[in-house]
């Protein structure tokens, strides 16, 4: 089988985040099973356009922004779409990591016109919207693609409801596929001493992810006498100025450090130096950074609107909070008081429920159904 994975954007600063990581994790697992995998998407930030990502062959095309306020939705590449029109027929199936943008949506339309089976993985990004640009894209692309995809892969119960809500009808092509995470070599439960511990925020600095609450939590913990270092890493999407202002106002520069954006290697290195990962974001569907943390035996603090909350609670791999500064701080203190227990549970959860072997089995069954249906 020859499969093409399509996504919006690849960049050195990992700006598009989780969907790229998911595509790569799935690609590696499929390749290990003899599936021929290639990638296609937009790119920016490179002096020379890469021809592979992590040893998976890739066709990447520089993108331009049609309007700064549109963010990722406003990225376009006519060369990419021309390539897709000419080449999708050479694949048995196209796996689209779809967002409301002018990269992945036209690829889906091309697959439909060229009669190539495609599956859609929305990563929680396709939900009902009142934004004018989003509703236009829904009318032009999204509704017909949801209805005509061979399979719609959902992560959470909420996403399984969002797809039909956007499509405007019940859908019979839904299939559950959680994100998986590879085993990290050498990952062992944390036995760190009670001093010199590190608490980290690793994600884009975006309003919904609320990085400012991480800094406010750090300030509270420091006032309470907790001996920690706090690190923040991620590309700025409008919240960096606010974060730095709180650091300056609360005189936290010696204990709270902003490290800038990180590539995947940098993310894993930082996780390996971290004792607790705190992600204060709301309505986070299925964050890869949380899965990568538990794969490194790092316990997590998340909010009750995160799609991973039931798994973390059930596996006792961290603490789920209401997202307030007080609860974030209390949860972090609790984990720091018993790192070994939570760390052991986190690693066990990653190696069982979210193993790539399990995800690979599920995905191949989905692909088999998708190609037969065509």
Identify the notable features of this structure and list them briefly.
Rossmann fold; 13 helices; 374 residues; alpha/beta; 20% strand; single chain
Order of helices and strands: EHEEEEEHEHEHEHEEHEHEHEHEHEHHH
Name the poorly predicted regions.
none
Shape: globular
Radius of gyration, CA atoms, in whole angstroms? 21 Å
- Provide the CATH top-level class of the largest domain: Alpha Beta
Strand order of the largest sheet: 3-4-2-1-7-8-9-10
What does this structure look like?
The protein has 13 helices and 16 strands. The chain has 2 domains: 2-180 and 355-373, Rossmann fold; 197-352, Rossmann fold, CATH 3.40.50. The chain is α/β, with parallel strands linked by helices and 374 residues long. Strands 3-4-2-1-7-8-9-10 form an 8-stranded mixed β-sheet, with helices on both faces. A 6-stranded parallel β-sheet has the order 13-12-11-14-15-16, with helices on both faces. A two-stranded antiparallel sheet has the order 5-6. The model has no long low-confidence stretch (mean pLDDT 93).
List strands and helices in order, with pairings:
Elements: E1 2-10, H1 18-32, E2 36-43, E3 52-53, E4 56-62, E5 64-65, E6 75-76, H2 78-87, E7 93-97, H3 104-113, E8 118-121, H4 132-148, E9 151-154, H5 157-167, E10 174-176, E11 197-202, H6 211-223, E12 228-233, H7 240-249, E13 256-258, H8 264-272, E14 276-278, H9 288-295, E15 299-303, H10 309-315, E16 318-321, H11 325-336, H12 339-352, H13 356-373
């Amino acid at each position: 089988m020859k499969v093409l994975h399509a996504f919006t954007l690849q960049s050195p600063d990992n700006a598009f985040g989780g969907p790229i990581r998911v595509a790569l994790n799935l690609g590696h697992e499929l390749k290990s099973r003899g599936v021929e995998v290639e990638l296609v998407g937009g790119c920016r930030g490179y002096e020379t356009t890469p021809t592979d990502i992590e040893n998976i062959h890739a066709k990447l095309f520089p993108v331009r922004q049609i309007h700064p306020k549109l963010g990722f939705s406003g990225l376009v590449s006519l060369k990419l779409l021309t390539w897709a029109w000419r080449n999708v027929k050479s694949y048995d199936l196209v796996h689209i990591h779809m967002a409301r943008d002018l990269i992945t949506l036209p690829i889906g339309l091309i697959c439909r016109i060229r009669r190539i089976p495609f599956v859609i993985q929305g990563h929680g990004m396709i939900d009902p919207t009142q934004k004018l640009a989003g509703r236009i894209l829904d009318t032009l692309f999204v509704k017909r693609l949801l209805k005509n995809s061979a399979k719609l892969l959902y992560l959470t119960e909420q996403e399984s409801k969002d797809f039909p809500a956007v499509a405007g009808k019940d859908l019979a092509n839904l299939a559950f596929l959680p994100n998986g995470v590879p085993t990290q070599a050498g990952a062992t439960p944390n036995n760190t001493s009670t001093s010199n511990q590190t608490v980290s925020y690793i994600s884009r600095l975006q309003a919904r992810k609320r990085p400012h609450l991480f800094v406010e939590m750090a300030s509270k913990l420091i006032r309470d006498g907790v001996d920690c270092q706090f690190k923040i890493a991620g590309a700025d999407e409008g919240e960096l100025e606010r974060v730095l202002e709180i650091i300056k106002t609360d005189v936290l520069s010696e204990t709270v450090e902003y490290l800038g954006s990180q590539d995947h290697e940098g993310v894993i290195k930082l996780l390996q130096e971290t004792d607790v990962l705190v992600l204060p974001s709301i309505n986070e569907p299925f964050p890869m950074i949380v899965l990568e943390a538990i794969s490194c035996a790092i316990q997590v603090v998340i909010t009750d609107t995160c799609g991973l909350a039931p798994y973390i609670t059930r596996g006792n791999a961290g603490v789920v909070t209401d997202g307030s500064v007080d609860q974030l701080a209390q949860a972090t203190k609790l984990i720091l008081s018993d790192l070994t227990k939570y760390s052991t549970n986190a690693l066990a959860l990653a190696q069982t429920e979210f193993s790539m072997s399990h995800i690979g089995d599920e995905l191949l069954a989905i692909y088999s159904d998708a190609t037969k249906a065509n």
